[in-house]
Specification:
Order of helices and strands: HHEHEEEHH
Number of strands: 4
Strand order of the largest sheet: 2-1-3-4
Radius of gyration: 50 Å
Strand content: 5-15%
CATH topology of the largest domain: hypothetical protein PF0899 fold
Shape: rod-shaped
């Protein structure tokens, strides 16, 4: 009887030890699986967090770049507007002073001679000669004005020359041939405001370029 009890006890203890081992193994497997799953979840969470962080950083950078581009464009626009306003103010100021400045050139003998010769040479090229070239001058014009005009037109040998005085004509001269007229008075030279302003702008650009060149030299 005792042997049977001992055998049963031995088998029971062996079975219990085997159950305990299997339970430990199963527990360890479950724990390892849980730990692996936890590590996977943590790694995925970290990866997603890094991705979201990179995405947020990229979006912030794009927004900053857009803000810089927009600000730069706004500054460029403001600069262009300011530059255009400055140029327009310069043009208006120059335009107000230009008639007197041109008239002052007529009072200078050397400049007056160049003025008359250029007008007469242009007239001989652009006006179809009729019976007579008619040169109009102000009654107060210097005596050498008519002489210079006659000397220049005579060289063309294309038509006789007649001189007339026109009260209030001011600086400059007009040359007529038939119904055609070449107006080289101050008002005639400045009649095309668009052309004159284009020439003023070109002169401003030249002066600015020369000034910039002098500063960098």
């Amino acid at each position: 009887m005792n042997d049977v009890v001992s055998l049963l006890q031995s088998q029971t203890e062996s079975l219990l030890r085997r159950v305990a081992r299997e339970q430990d193994t199963r527990t360890r497997l479950i724990r390892d699986a849980a730990e692996e799953q936890a590590r996977t979840i943590v790694a995925r969470a970290r990866h997603e967090a890094r991705a979201r962080l990179r995405q947020a950083i990229d979006e912030e950078r794009r927004q900053a770049e857009r803000a810089i581009v927009e600000r730069r464009a706004a500054l460029d626009t403001e600069s262009r507007r300011a530059g255009q306003a400055t140029v327009r103010a310069l043009i208006e100021g120059a335009w107000q002073r230009l008639p007197q400045a041109v008239a002052d050139r007529w009072d200078d003998p050397a400049a007056r001679t160049l003025w008359i010769r250029a007008a007469c040479e242009y007239a001989t090229r652009s006006l179809r000669p009729q019976s007579t070239y008619v040169v109009e001058l102000d009654p107060q014009a210097a005596p050498d004005a008519a002489e210079t005009a006659k000397g220049t037109l005579d060289t063309s040998g294309r038509a006789p020359i007649e001189f007339r005085t026109v009260a209030g004509l001011g600086a400059g001269l007009r040359i007529r041939s038939g119904d055609a007229c070449m107006d080289a008075t101050v008002s005639g030279l400045l009649a095309s405001r668009e052309r004159v302003e284009a020439e003023l702008l070109a002169e401003f650009d030249r002066l600015v370029s020369e000034s910039a060149g002098a500063q960098t030299a």
